């Protein structure tokens, strides 16, 4: 199909990620590897940007969507909008740079009364067909109509559609869903996430339109998320969760607590074995830790997406060092995969002795390691407001959604009552580097106004502010290895104070600069050959020193500065 606005994801080519987005790129890559992926086509980021600029679909897009639907009909042997063997669709966002949970998705699009009847007859499972119909109406109401509803499971479709005024035809529903995905690029939550992560606002999102597979079909169906390595620790073993008789939104929403991945092996060993085989292939192909979304339909595995996994700081360091030893990546790649901010997070205070005797006010699953103290707030707007005033706050929610991103950014840690380690709260907290505890139980979260300490490794929330200890980068073998590699490549010598005795001509920044404007620091450092101070452990400050020609920095810890300087050299 020759087009300006859409691309078929048939595995015969690998279009540019900036044009089709990360999700579609991964589908094209997996289909090219002959992995089991439902067929799909994608509306490009160029179409999104044209839509946002003019407020409507660009000329020719509707015709190209029709051609893409015809191709999907042929590829699946089903028919979108048909009353016999109906084709249902997943309509998903996908930016070139991963923004997990920030934009919108509509599942089961294409179902109506006739399609429900046809699915019930074809499958012999009327409850499945009815459940799929309800799921579509709830998601369409929330995402497209902006009127979230929870429909009575025991009601009939006529009653549901009296509450949810969806368009008359599946084709009109598809147009509404595509518009909603385009519009989600400029939502408050998406903008906040991009600003926090330095992602440009002009990239736009693609829209992937894919044939549905059904994890809610029967007892041999389900859905899950798998990491090729543990995203909390970096351990080189598969880590994930599985939810039987469910669809993907059930897992990421955090409203349901999935089972460990081992449960999938017990329920369907063949699908589990196929998943582990595909996971190993994808990690070797991408040479990076993978985050894989999958569905099992009546015992058959389907892969929906594979991307580089968001990982906790501990996992980033361990995976980078061990992948060098496994000859998956080289040293330069390893150094590029650990950010100065991740190392700084690792070197933040940890719980000291005596914590084991403190009162535990909540216990859940550790979803992102780290320790943080603060006052409990339950509203993301309040968290943002109080943090801006200089207060340390802990955001506690029943479960988080993309609309909570500003509060998660502002908070020192996140706690949820529901969800597991692949829920929205867990994934986004790892991306932000926030300690996170999930699944403490409905109504069992710490109370608003309480001062608590959150331990994102053990999954415990303690009463009060507990004593902490400072980690030592030199005492950690993996951090020490990164220091050796980084020093061999750094354009600036970075020394600990203990190693800089007798060094002459060193400017003491801590004594001369009070942390004001960067221009003041630049003026102080201009022309200096050496500088010392704890301030220089900050990546931004180390970069300023490099820009002013400083050749030796004396600070502690040294690794954040070294990694920042390597980034400047690159």
Quick tags:
kinase, five-stranded antiparallel β-sheet, 570 residues, Glucose Oxidase, domain 1, 24 strands, 4 domains, single chain, Dna Ligase, domain 1, D-amino Acid Aminotransferase, Chain A, domain 1, Phosphohistidine_dom_sf, alpha+beta
Topology:
Elements: E1 6-8, H1 17-32, E2 40-43, H2 45-54, H3 61-76, E3 89-95, E4 105-109, H4 113-123, H5 126-143, H6 157-163, H7 170-184, H8 188-197, E5 205-211, E6 222-227, E7 239-244, H9 248-252, E8 259-260, H10 261-267, H11 269-286, E9 290-297, E10 300-308, H12 313-325, H13 331-336, H14 340-346, E11 350-351, E12 360-363, E13 365-368, E14 371-377, H15 380-388, E15 393-397, H16 405-410, E16 413-416, H17 424-432, E17 436-438, E18 451-455, E19 460-463, E20 468-469, H18 477-489, E21 493-495, E22 506-508, H19 509-512, H20 518-525, E23 530-532, H21 539-547, E24 552-554, H22 559-569
Parallel strand pairs: 14-15, 15-16, 16-17, 21-24, 22-23, 23-24
Antiparallel strand pairs: 1-2, 2-5, 3-4, 3-5, 6-7, 6-9, 7-8, 9-10, 11-20, 12-19, 13-17, 14-18, 18-19
Helix pairs in contact: 4-5, 10-11, 12-14, 14-22, 18-22, 20-21, 21-22
Structure, described:
It is an enzyme of class 2 (transferase). This protein folds into 4 domains: 1-212, Dna Ligase, domain 1 (2-Layer Sandwich); 213-309, 2-Layer Sandwich (D-amino Acid Aminotransferase, Chain A, domain 1), CATH 3.30.470.20; 350-469, Glucose Oxidase, domain 1, CATH 3.50.30; 490-569, no CATH class. It has an 8-stranded mixed beta sheet. Strands 1-2-5-3-4 form a 5-stranded antiparallel beta sheet. With 570 residues, it is an alpha+beta fold. Helix 17 (424-432) links the parallel strand 16 (413-416) and strand 17 (436-438). The mean pLDDT is 91. The protein has 22 helices and 24 strands.
């Amino acid at each position: 199909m020759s087009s300006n606005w859409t691309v078929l994801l048939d595995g015969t080519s690998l279009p540019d990620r900036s044009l089709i987005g990360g999700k579609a790129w991964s589908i094209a890559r997996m289909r090219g590897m002959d992995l089991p992926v439902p067929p799909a086509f994608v509306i490009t980021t160029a179409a999104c940007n044209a839509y946002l600029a003019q407020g409507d679909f660009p000329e020719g897009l509707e015709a190209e969507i029709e051609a893409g639907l015809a191709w999907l009909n042929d590829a699946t042997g089903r028919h979108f909008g048909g009353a016999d063997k109906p084709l249902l669709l997943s309509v998903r966002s996908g930016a070139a740079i991963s923004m997990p949970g920030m934009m919108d998705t509509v599942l089961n699009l294409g179902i109506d009364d006739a399609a429900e009847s046809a699915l019930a007859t074809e499958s012999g499972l009327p409850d499945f067909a009815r459940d799929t119909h309800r799921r579509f109406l709830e998601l369409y109401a929330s995402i497209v109509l902006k009127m979230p509803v929870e429909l009575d499971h025991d009601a009939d479709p006529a009653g549901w559609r009296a509450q949810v005024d969806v368009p008359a035809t599946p084709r009109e529903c598809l147009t509404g869903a595509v518009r909603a995905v385009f519009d989600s690029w400029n939502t408050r939550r998406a903008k906040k996430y991009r600003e926090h992560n330095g992602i440009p606002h002009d990239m736009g999102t693609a829209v992937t339109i894919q044939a549905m597979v059904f994890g809610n079909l029967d007892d041999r169906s389900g859905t899950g998320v798998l990491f090729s390595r543990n995203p909390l620790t970096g351990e080189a073993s598969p880590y994930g969760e599985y939810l039987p008789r469910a669809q993907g939104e059930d897992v990421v929403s955090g409203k349901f607590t999935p089972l460990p991945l081992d449960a999938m092996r017990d329920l369907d060993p063949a699908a589990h074995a196929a998943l582990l085989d595909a996971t190993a292939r994808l990690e070797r192909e991408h040479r990076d830790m993978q985050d894989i979304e999958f569905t099992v339909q009546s015992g058959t595995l389907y892969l929906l997406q594979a991307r580089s996994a968001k990982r906790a700081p501990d996992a980033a360091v361990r995976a980078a060092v061990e992948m060098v030893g496994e000859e998956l990546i080289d040293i330069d790649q390893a150094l590029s995969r650990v950010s100065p901010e991740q190392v700084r997070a690792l070197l933040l205070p940890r719980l000291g002795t005596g914590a084991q005797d403190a009162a535990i006010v909540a216990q859940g699953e550790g979803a992102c390691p780290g320790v943080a103290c603060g006052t409990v707030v339950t509203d993301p707007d309040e968290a943002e407001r109080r943090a801006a005033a200089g207060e340390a706050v802990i955001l506690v929610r029943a479960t988080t959604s993309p609309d909570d991103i500003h509060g998660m950014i502002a908070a020192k840690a996140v706690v949820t009552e529901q969800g597991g380690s692949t829920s929205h709260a867990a994934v986004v907290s790892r991306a932000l580097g926030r300690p996170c505890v999930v699944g403490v139980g409905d109504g069992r979260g710490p109370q608003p106004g309480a001062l608590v300490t959150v331990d994102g490794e053990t999954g415990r929330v303690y009463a009060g502010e507990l004593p902490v200890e400072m980690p030592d980068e030199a005492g950690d073998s993996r951090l020490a290895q990164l220091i050796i590699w980084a020093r061999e490549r750094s354009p600036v010598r970075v020394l600990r104070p203990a190693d800089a005795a007798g060094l002459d001509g060193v400017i003491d920044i801590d004594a001369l600069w009070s942390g004001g404007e960067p221009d003041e620091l630049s003026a102080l450092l201009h022309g200096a050959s050496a500088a010392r101070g704890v301030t220089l452990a900050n990546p931004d400050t180390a970069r300023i020193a490099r820009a002013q020609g400083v050749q030796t920095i004396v600070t502690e810890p040294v690794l954040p500065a070294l990694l920042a300087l390597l980034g400047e050299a690159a």
